[in-house]
Structure formats: C-alpha cells, structure tokens
Specification:
The protein is of the alpha/beta class. The radius of gyration is 22 Å and the shape is globular. Strands 1, 2, 3, 4, 5, 6, 7, 8, 9 and 10 form a ten-stranded mixed beta sheet that branches. It has two domains: about 180 residues, Bordetella uptake gene, domain 1 (D-Maltodextrin-Binding Protein, domain 2, 3-Layer(aba) Sandwich), CATH 3.40.190.150; about 120 residues, D-Maltodextrin-Binding Protein, domain 2 (3-Layer(aba) Sandwich). It starts with a helix and ends in a 5-residue tail after the last helix.
Length: about 325
C-alpha cells in the first residue's frame, strides 16, 4: 500500500477506534436504559437457574429495568457461554455460569471461546455443596456401603450429572478416584433432570443440587448419603458430609457467578458488581439463598477473575489424575 494511503488508512482506523470507545463510554454513563438479559446454560429448577432468577429480580428492583432470565441449555453451559462471549459488549447480555465454566477448559482443547479472554468476570454470587443421592431400591444407607457395593460390582452402577464437565461430573469422578470405584457417568441437561432420573429409577445415584433434591429427600423419593462439601447443610443437618460418612478428605463444592462479554466497559462491570453484591448480602436475598442451600458471596470483579483462574488450574490437575474425557 502506498505510504500516503497507508497513512490515511491508519488515521481512519484510529478515528474509528476512538469513536467506538467514546460510544461505549457514553453508554456506560447512561447504563442501563433498557432490559438486561441473563442467559442460563442449564434447565429451569436447578441451582444456576434459581440463582439467576433471585439475582435478576433484586437487580431489577435496584435499576428500575426488567431483568429477563433466558434458559439456553446444553453442553454444561458451553452454548450459553459462547453466545454471550460473542454478544455486543454493552452490558445488556450477561451469563450465569456454574463451576463448569472452569472445568470445560480442562476437558476441551478447542472451545469456541476462552472464558478468561472472551468473558469478563462480574460477580461470584453463591457457592453450594451437592448431595449424594441413591434410589431407594439401591441396597445401601451409607457412603461406606455404596463404596463397598460399587467395588463389588465395578461398572454396574451409574451416576448422573448436569452434563459433561459440570460440577456434578467432577464430583463423581473425584469420588471414583478417591474411593477406587468405577461408577459410570450419565450426562443430563441440568441439575433438575439428573435428580429426576434417580427419582424415576433410571440411574442408581447422582450428585444433586440441594435446590432440586431436598423436596424429594423429604418425601422419601430418594435417599441422601452425604454432602459433598466440608460442612453439613442446614437444610438437611442429619446428613453427614461424604468425608464424615466413609471417604475422608473428600470435598467438592459448586459455585455460580455472572460473566459479561470481555469488552464491556469497566464502569458497567463495577456498577453491576456493586449492585449484585449489595443484593446478595441483603437480608431478603440471604434468606432466600439459605432456603435453597446456597451460600452468598461478596467478591469484587477482580477477585472473581482470580478465583476463576485458580479453579481452572485446579481442575486441570484433577481432570488429568482422573483421566476424564469429553466422552
């Protein structure tokens, strides 16, 4: 390209970039002026969906705009995450991610997006343990008995998860690794479906979200053996942790948070984080979360980004040790 033309091209490119930055900055100063969408990559009724709806309602009350929750299920949130990664960076399209967002990079070398490059952390919202469930027909009442049965019948039992690379999938493979068992993985579309599969007797066991599982536990439709985290749940305090009940040192905790397209202006990210944290720490939302077995968090956007980075590194190691595959 001749030098004069090259100079003109660079001038226009520079002006265009400045115009885009000015437009985004102007947008940030007036944000929000229209409804916000939170995309959830999991089915209605699970912990991700419930968290998004509770946060969305509180956010709507604060900003005076509608917050619409939209479920786009499939591939452990990969479809929803990819859609938001390619959305306009204006702060009006967000995604509620689960722990799977930091697990998928360890399972797939060629994801259509990079969670740390193409998505911006906004706020970690809640953490939650799962509960190890079995169908009442399974002849076990403790974690130790399940381990003994699984070892006696390798490959015969199955556990369900919310999808390949989901927190439940990781919980199940960690259990297999530590207990030296071979309980087969069956993937579903969300945290409600895999619990319903155990209720119906389609699979023997699963790691269910407390949101989806507790009603069926209380009704006697499934049997709870253990909590995946390091402490018992206030919702079902009589159920021990898996570590207490037969697998010392076991710990697998899920988390849920909000991400945005990477180029969303910093001012909007900070505004959203402030509002979400404020809402999550309100007495109203704390009580609502606690009733669902969810533990509200109060990270800054930067702290959430550091948390995701550490989770990816941790999961890379576990996926390698457990020899997990995308299936």
């Amino acid at each position: 390209m001749p030098k004069p033309l090259l100079g003109i091209f660079r001038l226009f490119a520079g002006l265009s970039a400045c115009a885009n930055l000015f437009a985004l900055d102007s947008l940030a100063q007036t944000y929000p002026v229209k409804p916000i969408r939170i995309i959830v990559g999991f089915s209605p009724g699970g912990a991700a969906d419930v968290t998004a709806r509770l946060v969305g309602q509180k956010l709507s009350d604060e900003i005076g705009q509608s917050v619409i929750v939209e479920n786009r299920t499939g591939a452990s949130g990969l479809i929803a995450n990819g859609r938001v990664a390619s959305s306009p960076p204006d702060g009006y399209t967000l995604v509620m991610v689960s722990s799977a967002a930091a697990i998928m990079p360890a399972l797939h070398a060629n994801l259509p997006y990079d969670v740390e490059r193409d998505l911006a952390p906004v706020s970690l919202v809640v953490k939650s343990s799962h509960v190890l469930l079995v169908h009442p027909s399974v002849p076990v009442r403790t974690v130790a008995e399940l381990i003994a049965l699984a070892r006696a019948q390798p490959g015969k039992l199955s556990y369900g998860s919310a999808g390949i690379g989901s927190a439940q999938h990781l919980a199940g493979e960690l259990f297999n690794l530590m207990a030296k068992t071979n309980i087969k993985h069956v993937a579903y579309k969300g945290g409600a479906e895999n619990v319903l599969a155990v209720v119906a007797g389609g699979i023997e066991t699963t790691y269910g979200s407390l949101v989806a599982a507790v009603p069926f536990i209380n009704a006697g439709r499934v049997r709870a053996l253990g909590i995946t985290g390091t402490k018992r749940s206030a919702l079902i305090p009589s159920i021990p942790t898996i570590s207490e009940a037969g697998l010392p040192g076991y710990d697998s905790t899920a988390w849920y948070g909000i991400l945005a397209p990477a180029a969303v202006p910093k001012r909007i990210i900070t505004q959203l984080n402030t509002l979400i944290v404020k809402g999550s720490q309100s007495n109203e939302l704390k009580e609502a979360f606690n009733k669902q077995g969810l533990d509200p968090q109060s990270h800054t956007a930067e702290q959430f980004g550091e948390f995701i980075h550490a989770e990816i590194a941790k999961n890379m190691e576990l996926v390698k040790l457990a020899r997990m595959k995308p299936e």
